[in-house]
Design a protein that fits this description.
The chain has 111 residues and is mainly beta. It contains no helices and eleven strands. The strands form two sheets. Strands 2, 4, 5, 6, 9, 10 and 11 form a seven-stranded mixed beta sheet that branches. It has a four-stranded antiparallel beta sheet with strand order 1-3-8-7, with no helix packed on it. A hairpin with a 5-residue loop joins strand 5 and strand 6. The chain starts with a strand and ends with a strand.
Length: 111
C-alpha cells in the first residue's frame, strides 16, 4: 500500500489549503482513512478520520475549520483546511486506517 499526500505549501493565517492523497496498491472502499500531522519533536496528532460510510471525526483543534472527504471510486482522500492558524503548521500525512501512514506534505502557516 502506498499513500502520497500533496497540496501543502506556505499560506498566510486565515487562508485555506486543500490536501489530496492518492492511494495505490489496494482499495480504500472498506477502510477508515485518516489524516494526521506531526511537528518535529512532538507526537503525531490524529487530525481527522472518515469511515467507509462517511462518518467523520475531528480533533478538537481543527473542528469547524477542517473537512475530510473521500472518493473511494478514485482511491482518493482529501482534507480541506480553512481559517488556517500558525499552530496548524506541520507535516501532514494521510493514513490507511490510523496506523499506516504514507509520505507527508509540509504545511506552513505564517505571515
Amino acid at each position: 500500500v502506498q499513500l502520497q499526500a500533496s497540496g501543502g505549501g506556505l499560506m498566510q493565517p486565515g487562508g485555506s489549503l486543500r490536501l489530496s492523497c492518492v492511494v495505490s496498491g489496494t482499495t480504500i472502499r472498506l477502510k477508515t482513512m485518516a489524516w494526521s500531522r506531526q511537528v518535529p519533536g512532538k507526537e503525531r496528532e490524529l487530525v481527522a478520520s472518515i469511515a467507509p460510510g462517511g462518518a467523520k471525526d475531528y480533533a478538537d483543534s481543527v473542528k469547524g475549520r477542517f473537512t475530510v472527504s473521500r472518493d473511494s471510486a478514485k482511491n482518493m482522500l482529501y482534507l480541506q483546511m480553512n481559517s488556517l492558524k500558525p499552530e496548524d503548521s506541520a507535516v501532514y500525512y494521510c493514513g490507511y486506517g490510523t496506523s499506516y501512514w504514507g509520505q507527508g506534505t509540509q504545511v506552513t502557516v505564517s505571515s
